[in-house]
Structure formats: structure tokens, C-alpha cells
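tl;dr need the bound structure. longer version: we got a ligand (adenosine-5'-triphosphate) that a collaborator sent over and nobodys looked at where it sits. i said id run it. heres the input, straight from their email, havent touched it
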Amino acid sequence: MAKEENNLMDKIESLCKRRGFVFPGSEIYGGLANSWDYGPLGVELKNNIKNLWWKRFVQQRDDMVGIDAALIMNPKVWQASGHLENFSDPLVECKKCHHRFREDLLEDKKKCPDCKGELMDAKQFNLMLKTFLGSTEDDANVVYFRPETAQAMFVDFKNVLDTTRRKLPFGIAQIGKAFRNEITPGNFIFRTREFEQMEIEYFIKEKGWENVFEYWRNEMQLWMTEELGLDKNSIHELDVPDGERAHYSKKTIDFEFDFPFGRKELYGLAYRTDFDLKNHFKEAQYEDSETKEKIYPHVVEPTFGVDRSILAVLCNSYKEEDGRIFLKLNPKLAPYKVAVSCLKKNDEKLVSKAEEIYHELKKEFYANFDNRGNAGKYYGSQDEIGTPYCIMVDFQTLEDNTVTVRDRDTTKQERIKADELLNFLKNELI
Ligand code: ATP
């Protein structure tokens, strides 16, 4: 890996920690391998992404409903879905240093990448995270944390159908945590053992599935470019060949993103056929309105990783220009939409005017108040966390009730009337 690329990840990780986006998990106890906590700004960025997604794919559509299911499901779910049998990665161990690796991710499958020692034969390692439910730790109480949110949409299919009277095509969406005992987690929040997914199971008739697949492929592209603001040239589609797809899939496209550590999967789109519903339900549940026949709908599944979305957005928006660092975030994603400060921190009139403006704006937008009375540090600090607009109250404000508004991307400032700030921001941000 080129030094420069490594450097960018170091810079992003350090900014995340310094400014409260992402902290190492359990840090005061020495951490817990590859676990991360979202801090005060990270949780805002994350919620903004999840809320935008929910609004776009659930609330603004007529053909989608949402659910929020339990993380731990009856183990029979994982029997039926094939996860207990098939959800595994090939694990290899070095005979010399005993480090373990995912064989399919190794360039040289014969030699240990750490000590060049000989590798043992690969064995399948199941990624399901096990625990016990109840007061006795025996086999009858073994349960699994869900490795994907998808299965709940299938298991709840009949309940959703009975309560919403949907007709094909329609989708069920869910945002939630998933757990995988990954062999080699790493690259900051790219691959962790606990992560969050935003998934849609879109139920259709078998005939014409190719068109639905194509439709979602386009929708996913639009989400990445329009909402996340990712550079189109950094996104690549990989048509996953036969033999490499998940056990249930007839066609899969991986959307890959050029992360600083290489081109890696960001999202996936899979045609799951009627595999899941057939495995979970002995009888077909859906009645075709034309033929009155009971059928098993087929499924197209667009799946989006929340944490990988955040990492892609951070990598895409991190800029160093003319000696300043700024996050060129889509304003919809920015943790704070606006910040307010005043020129002198000890001038009562200035401070109280700035506070008045801040409280007014805060009713509409998540806003930040900076009372350090240092314009350079104020702008630098808001740039680094991607705040689109910075307001400055100065002595002229006290005379004519105007303030300066500074644009994060251009650093240009314009004077506008304090009374017009709300409208100005609504125009720019919504
Ligand atoms: P990979 O090949 O990188 O292991 P996958 O193909 O197994 O990923 P899927 O099962 O398709 O991943 O999961 C759907 C989405 O969930 C992925 O596109 C990704 O955004 C996210 N995801 C999967 N595993 C992880 C993980 N360990 N950490 C963070 N996000 C993940």
C-alpha cells in the first residue's frame, strides 16, 4: 500500500478521534479488538445517513414498509436460511506464527503474509456469533446474534402481509445491527464484528426480475451520488461470478468504492430468488390477485452497510487545500448545519447578540456555539467537522443587525440581515 494512502487513513482516524466522530471501543481498558464507539459528532453523521435512507426508501415510497426486529432470533431461522451450514469463510493458519487469515483475501495462498511461514490447509469457519439465552449454558440454550438483518423480513413476511394488505411488488426495509465473527476485521470501521446494515427485501413475481434488479441498481447509484455525495469515479460495479456468490443468490453485484486501502465492497445487490420464503414457509402465503393462486414471491435485495457508508463519506469528503483541512460533506449529512460565534469573547453585548441568534437557529437546525472569540480557530474547527455555514457577530451587527455568513467550501463571507438568516439557511440546506 502506498504511503500516501496509509497516511490518509491515519489522518481520518485521527480526526475522528480528535473531534469526537469515532473512538476506540473500551479504550480505558486497552480497547477490544476492532470495536469502535461513535462519539457526539459520529452519532449525528450516522443518524443523518440512516434518516435520509429511511425517508428516501421507506417514507417517500408507496411500495415499502419498515420493521425493527429482534437481534436474536430462534436458531431454527438460521437452520432454514442455510446460515448454520453455509455462512462461513475459509480460514487458514500459519504453521509457524499461528496467525490466522481469510484465505480468499490472500494474494499468495501458500505463504503467511506476516512471517512467510507455511500455511495449513483451509477449513471453513462459521461466522455466526454464539451466545446462550436463559440461565443455563447448555446446548438447548444456544442462540446466535443475527449476521444480517434480512432474515427478519422473511420471517415476518406473513405478519406484514396480513397487517398491510400489500400487493406485489413491495418491499420490507430494516435498519439494524448485525454481528459476524470476522476472521480478519480491520481498516478502521470498514470491517468489524458488530456493525449496522440498512436492508431492503423487495418482493416480486419471478417474471421480469431482471428489470427490478436493474431498477435497484440505478437507485443504489443515485443514493451513493446524490445523497452521500460520493464521487462517481470512485464507485465501481462488480458482477460477482458463478461460484463466488452467496449460497442463495442467482445474481449479485458488489458496489465497490476506492477506499484509501484499496477498492473494496461498499454495498451489495442480490437476486435471492424464492429461496428464503420457501425455506421458512411450508406453504406459499401470497395470493396472486389475478390467478388467485398462492405463490412464493421472489426477492431482490439491496443491502447497504451503515459503517462503510460513513467511512466512504469521510474518505470522499476529507480535503486539504490552501493549508486548511475541511470535510466537504453534503450539508444534509453534516453533524452541525450552522455555527455561531462573536468577534470578542468578553464583550457582553456581542456575546448576548450571538447567543440570541444561536438560540433562534437551534430551533430549526442542529447548531453549535463557539465562544472562544478567535475567528481563525473558530473557522478552522468548524471546517474540520464539515459545518457548512459559520456565522460571525461583530460590532457592525450591533449597529445594523447584519452578520457575516461564511461558506465552508469557498471560505467566502457575505453580510446578511440577522432576521433573514433562517430563510437563507433553509434555502441552502433543505
Ligand atoms: P465482505 O465480502 O466485505 O465480507 P459481504 O459480501 O460478506 O462483505 P454482505 O453479506 O453482502 O457482505 O453484507 C451486506 C453489507 O453489510 C456489505 O455490503 C457491507 O456494507 C456490510 N458489511 C458486511 N460485513 C461487514 C463488516 N464485517 N463490517 C462492516 N460492514 C459490513
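gonna send this back to them w/ a short note. The mean pLDDT is 95.
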